[in-house]
Write a structure and sequence with these properties.
Isoleucyl-tRNA Synthetase, Domain 1, 3 domains, two-stranded antiparallel sheet, 60% helix
Length: 489
């Protein structure tokens, strides 16, 4: 190893090379009066390309700083693996850092060579920037008809139209600007036809935002176009604007509904359309951005927009709901390492309308599980569920006060009435933790009932009355979650 390094000028240890690159690039940027931009995205790749890293500071013409920031960064990083440099305010400097693979006797020559390489790249970017702005985004819209989105799902123009209808519906449901949502959807894919995005595919959406602003589109429309691909990957930022969130959900859900409708669902590790990522993105936006929307209604709206296929819409919507629910499970289990799968299932079985509502119920069940009464009430709910199942889950039974013979069943009935009155406004206000805490008071009357009363009495009327009472108890808990699924013993 000593010989390899001293004689061969090879640093064999990858982590050491990476650290040397990071330290060297940082020092070079500091020497230029700035700091490295997006270094973490390049350190591994550069460390895999060089064996004897030597950072070299270069310069480019300051006029290229008039290009959008993302264009300059992409030109430097994607094409040349150069490290951009910015000042303390975050503004780019006309400097870059390259990492040579040798200790040159004439580093100026190496610097000059790299500067000559980057000049035409930046000139090309400037050419695309100037050329693209000669045509508005809206002027490119008709050409989307000529670009096939996916066989069976029409053109990019068809996708934009479907996404716009879904975004408009979602915006109206959330009391957001419907016109801006529909306008953003109509323009969101137009930058795919620009020269800049053709050269830098990673800038799709980003360039759409710049071109929309240059065209005089409302700022909310432009920002939504720029954000609608988010999150692009695990841990990526979410859209921050109201219309951006709406458009991101609509675009992803249209993709899911469309691809599902033509039978190209993910299998095993294969997911060429990134459907799992799209579903997780929807989950994250709806929960973390606080979009309180009926998920099943949203899915059905997306399904109804798709071209008629071989799969019935109801079946397709159910499949989509199940697929998104799988991602929801993964989301919560990854977010909270201490969350038990059975706790998730206790809420999932109720299929709450909105994911935001789901999140609140889940938090309430986790809080309830820590109460002293939780174990007893969970066991009682299991027992009640088993009794009702063995009795054929009778429906439509009503409790008749005159048939309450034992003090224990009378006490449980009174406790039920009190609890129902107390928790009703809590359930309506989605104060689920308060509701379960109030229902915890039912432990003693429930336990006493099972100690004193034979549910399956020979008298049919008495049996049905007691089954009705137990059914009402279970229904009260089910207004929040099915706590019979918890294992707390």
């Amino acid at each position: 190893m000593y010989r390899l390094e001293k004689k061969g000028h090879v640093i064999a240890d990858f982590e050491r090379r990476r650290e040397m690159i990071r330290d060297g690039v940082t020092a070079a940027a500091n020497g230029a009066g700035g700091h490295v931009v997006d270094g973490e995205s390049l350190y591994d790749e550069v460390a895999a390309l060089v064996e004897w890293p030597v950072p070299i500071l270069g310069r480019f013409d300051e006029k290229y700083l008039e290009l959008p920031r993302e264009v300059v960064i992409s030109t430097l990083t994607s094409h040349q693996r150069y490290f951009p440099v910015a000042d303390d305010e975050g503004a780019l400097l006309p400097r870059f850092i390259t990492v040579a693979n040798l200790e040159s006797k004439d580093p100026d020559q190496v610097r000059d060579g790299n500067e000559r390489v980057i000049r035409p790249r930046l000139a090309d970017a400037a050419f695309f920037w100037d050329g693209d702005r000669r045509q508005t985004l809206n002027g490119r819209s008709a050409a989307l008809n000529d670009v096939i989105y996916q066989r069976g799902l029409g053109s990019l123009h068809d996708k934009s139209r479907r996404t716009g209808a879904l975004a408009g519906w979602l915006a109206a449901a959330l009391d957001r600007d419907k016109d801006h949502a529909e306008r953003a959807a109509a323009l969101a894919k137009c930058d795919l036809l620009s020269g800049m995005v053709g050269e830098f595919p990673e800038l799709q959406g980003t360039m759409g935002r710049y071109y929309a602003l240059a065209d005089g589109e409302p700022e909310g429309v432009a920002e939504a176009i720029g954000e609608h691909y988010r999150p692009r990957f695990a841990g990526d930022d979410l859209p921050t604007t109201e219309i951006g969130q709406v458009l991101a959900v609509a675009d992803k859900l249209d993709t899911l509904a469309g691809v599902f409708s033509i039978g190209k669902t993910p299998s095993g590790n294969r997911d060429p359309f990134g459907l799992r990522r799209a579903a997780l993105g929807i989950v994250r936006i709806l929960i973390e951005c606080g979009l309180d929307i009926d998920l099943k209604a949203l899915i059905m709206r997306a399904v109804d927009q798709q071209p008629k296929g071989k799969i019935e819409n109801d079946v397709l919507a159910a499949d989509l709901y199940a697929f998104i629910s799988d991602r929801l499970r993964r989301y919560f289990l990854d977010r909270d390492a201490g969350l038990a799968a059975e706790t998730f299932d206790a809420v999932m079985v109720r299929e709450p309308e909105s994911l935001l509502d789901f999140d609140r119920r889940l938090a309430a069940v986790q809080t309830f599980a820590r109460l002293e009464q939780a174990e007893s009430l969970s066991a009682a709910n299991k027992r009640i569920a088993n009794i009702l199942r063995k009795a054929g889950n009778p429906d439509g039974l009503k409790v008749k006060k005159k048939l309450l013979q034992h003090d224990a069943e009378q006490a449980l009935f009174n406790a039920l009435l009190n609890a129902r009155e107390k928790v009703a406004p809590m359930i309506k206000g989605r104060r689920y933790a308060e509701a379960l805490n109030a229902l915890a008071d039912l432990r003693d009357p429930v336990d006493h009932f099972f100690d004193e009363v034979m549910v399956m009495a020979e008298d049919e009327a008495l049996k049905n009355n007691r089954l009705a009472l137990l059914g009402d108890i279970r229904a009260l808990f089910l207004d929040v979650a099915d706590i019979s699924r918890l294992s707390l013993g």
